[in-house]
Fold this sequence. Notes:
This is DUF3037 domain-containing protein. This protein is α+β, with helices and mostly antiparallel strands. The chain folds into two domains: about 5-125, no CATH class; about 145-280, Trna Endonuclease, Chain: A, domain 1 (3-Layer(aba) Sandwich), CATH 3.40.1350. The chain has eight helices and ten strands. It has helices at about 45-50, 55-75, 80-95, 115-125, 145-155, 200-225, 245-255, 270-280, and strands at about 5-15, 20-30, 35-40, 100-105, 105-110, 165-170, 175-185, 190-195, 230-235, 260-265. Helix 2 (about 55-75) packs across helix 3, helix 5 (about 145-155) crosses helix 8 and helix 6 (about 200-225) packs parallel to helix 7 (about 245-255). The model has no long low-confidence stretch (mean pLDDT about 85).
Amino acid sequence: MNDLFTYQILKYKSSIVAGEAVNVAVLFYFPEFTHFELVKGDLKRPKSIFPDFDSKLINHYLDIIEGRIEEKKLTFSKVPDEKSIQKYVHENILAIDAAGLVFDTPVKVTEGLSSIAETISAYSQLLLPGITHLKQTQVHHNEKFLITQYLNNITSQNKDIEKKLIRNKTITTDTVSLAFDIAWKNGTLNHVKPISFDLNKPKEIQNKASLYFGYIYQLAEYAKQNSFRFDFLVSRPQNKELLNDYENALDILNFDKTVPKRIITEDDLEKYSEETVNELN
C-alpha cells in the first residue's frame, strides 16, 4: 500500500504552562479509502508519569471523540489537506486543550505498509509506547474502496491502460440520470459503477438494491439502443449476519434478465480487472 495517509497524535498535557505532555491516542486518516481510526494508548503510562492523571475522565473523553469521529466521518473524509484537517478536528472532534487533551499538528506520510491494518499497527506501536492490544481494523468496503481497488488492479498490470478509460460519464434520459465512475469499450460501451452493500441494517441493503434496480430498469431500453452495458462492482456486508440480505439484494439487481448488465462481486473483481486490461491492450 503506497498511499498517502495522515496521523495526529492526541496528547495529554498536565500543565499548559509547563508544556509537559504524553501521547494517549493517535488519529489515522487514509483519504483514498475515506477511512479514519482513533487508536487509544495504554493509560497506565500517563498515570505513572502524572499522579493526578484521571484515567476515568480521559477514557470518557476518548469515547466522546470516537463517537464524534463516527458521526462526522462523511464530511471529515472530504477534508483535503493538513491545515484543513487540523481546523476541522478542532472545530468538530475536540476543542483545543479540552481536559488537558490536545491534537498535535497533522503529519502526512507518503508511504504505508502493505495494508491499512499493518500501517495502523506499526505506527501505533511506534507512537504509543507500551500499547499491547489493538482492536481489529475494519475498512468499510464502500464505493470509493471498490473503485480504488479496481483501478489499482488495472494500473498494477499496465499503467497506460488508465488513459484509455472514460471517466465520470453520466447517462441521462427523459426520466432518470445516473452517473458512472468509469466506462470502457469492447464491443459494448461498459459503464462501471460501484455499489456497496457493506451496510449495517437489512432494510438499508434492500432499499439500496431496489433503488439501483429502478435505475437500470428505467435505463434498459436506452442501453440496448446504444449498445451500453452496466457493470456493477458489488461489495458484501462484513457483518456475516447480513449475508442473506446481501444475496437477496443480488437477486433484486438480477430480477430483469433482459437488462444489459453484469454484477461483479469482490471475489471476481481481480478477474474483471484483468479482462479490462486484456480488452484495452
